[in-house]
């Protein structure tokens, strides 16, 4: 994405430079990311963005990369990769997680009290155990460096090695209070820490684009690499168009849904661990206290499952069919481990329905409505627990990310949560990324100004509850029973 910032007062608009798909590759060692293809696509996007900026008379000033969390790579002092980075859905992470928890005195409770990160097999700490137990020699290479994936791409762009804070905070390897590497934890677990380098804040200027690369891409002189919130959710939450304070929650909706609030300090209580909530660092020093919820992965998997059986439906068609299906007929827990794994979506949904004594979905619309209503109820249940732990009521829920385009889910969410939902930008991650870069260049003063720019640059619609409240209250009770 190319972001163009200008005007008085400042406003921002996005221009799409390049969009591409990428998937992990299956290898004998497990699923890995196709980094060469990913790098080629990134360079294509940078080159096109620079050309578009020049045509607009607004030469490119900076570049910043965000990606998903938790995945990482090792590089030697010459910059060679020490193995391909594994994709976070690697099934070998689950037994590695158990080995870590078995070795740590106090198990997960102790780990959460130190790091504030929820228990997920893909957490970087567990990935590190998997990788170290499979090949410790890589970690013994003198000068080997640990980089999260966006940090690796920054390194390839400008030659500077650093690990940006918002993504580092997702690893379960940071002390939640000091926001620095918990080297004592790694020592207790018998895991290496020599590859861990300095942590930088979002907005840090890492350096100019490498000269040879700048020439190849046709970049103007002086283009710098500036770290945004490199965890995509951190960038998305930074772009929530909330102004004037007040109590609000956010829902970053995409393949995953991340629902939470901003806090000044982490909460690492047993009650928070039980939900589970996680404590990740956001832009401006805030703590993103949130829960991971399955998200539109359910609809993506349903669509793939239907397509394999010859029923090719796009997302708009699936949403339309869901809108015609009977309401609140079949509910499932969207956060179960079987639904998180790819394949056999309809069979898994029917299995949950059968085990809980509910009518089985039969049509594509019934399957889709089951997924969407279950997600909306999971959002509402998470808000209840969030308010119980923080002692604050979120009067409004801000929705950002690609999920804002699913108008049925937006309405179901407002109905289930019994509160208004404000629809923010679908490209919140790109906006937050670009505006944190602008802050790093001294063009924006703070997070409040950043959000004010988003609010006046993007329309913010409000979806209010319109459904039968008593029916939704009954559905919330049913949902609570089935998840417990």
Overall description:
By secondary structure, the chain is α/β, with parallel strands linked by helices. Helices cover 42% and strands 15% of the residues. A seven-stranded mixed beta sheet has the order 14-15-13-12-16-17-18, with helices on both faces.
Q: What does this entry show, briefly?
A:
The longest helix is centred in the C-terminal third of the chain and has 27 residues, at 364-390. With 484 residues, the protein is α/β, with parallel strands linked by helices.
* Helix share bin: 40-55%
Q: Widest sheet: strand order? A: 14-15-13-12-16-17-18
Alpha-beta classification = alpha/beta
Number of strands: 18
- Strand percentage lies at 5-15%
Computed Rg: 22 Å
Mean pLDDT reading: 95
End-to-end CA span: 42 Å
Largest sheet: 7 strands, mixed
Characterize the overall form. Answer: globular
Count of helical regions: 19
Give the low-pLDDT segments: none
Task: Please describe the topology of this protein.
Layout lengths: L1 E5 L4 E5 L9 E3 L2 E3 L2 H21 L6 E2 L8 E4 L17 H11 L3 H9 L8 H11 L10 E4 H10 L4 E2 H4 L14 H6 L10 E2 L4 E4 L2 H7 L6 E3 L5 H7 L9 E6 L3 E7 L6 H5 L3 E4 L5 E7 L3 H12 L6 H10 L12 H4 L4 H11 L8 H27 L5 E5 L6 H11 L3 E3 L4 H13 L6 H11 L3 E3 L5 H15 L1
Parallel strand pairs: 5-11, 8-9, 12-16, 16-17
Antiparallel strand pairs: 1-2, 3-4, 6-7, 10-11, 12-13, 13-15, 14-15, 17-18
Helix pairs in contact: 2-4, 9-17, 11-15, 12-15, 15-16, 15-19
